[in-house]
Amino acid sequence: QIQLVESGGGLVQPGGSLRLSCAASGFALDYYAVGWFRQAPGKEREGVSFVTRGAGSTSYADSVKGRFTISRDNAKNTVYLQMNSLKPEDTAVYYCAIGLRVGDPMSDLEYDYWGRGTQVTVSS
To answer: What is the pLDDT of residue 55?
Structure first.
């Protein structure tokens, strides 16, 4: 059974950091591309970051470029999203998703399986 479980969310002050994890079970994560998405209240889900399968090249939304870093540890079957210099506008539920064939990495239509999400709140 394919499962993706996000963790690491929480409440953090502006300028702070969090590291999100996306742990996979039931399959080998390194065969899949992985995307991180987020959805704020009243807004559409948006792509945040993406890593290709295997060694993994990466891409980022402009809004997080230079602040967020995606990485994968295939031995641990886990993908991470390191988030630094957090801003209140980063507040959202963050989801990880996997896809075998991802054309547009920032489109949620390209992904096959999703986790349930983890809440990130940036507030003073």
So the answer is: 66
pLDDT value, residue 74: 86
As a whole number of angstroms, the distance between CA 79 and CA 45 comes to: 19
d(CA 119, CA 95): 9
> Which tokens hold the place of 52?
């290709």
Alpha helices (runs of H) in the chain, residue ranges in sequence order: none
Cβ distance 54 to 30 under 8 Å?
Answer: yes
Q: Report strand pairing: 46-51 vs 58-60.
A: antiparallel
Quote the tokens at residue 99: 């896809």
Which whole number is the average pLDDT over 87-103? 95
Residues 81 and 37: beta-carbon distance below 8 Å? no
Strand partners, 90: none
d(CA 104, CA 86): 26
Which helix (H) or strand (E) segment holds residue 46: the answer is strand 46-51
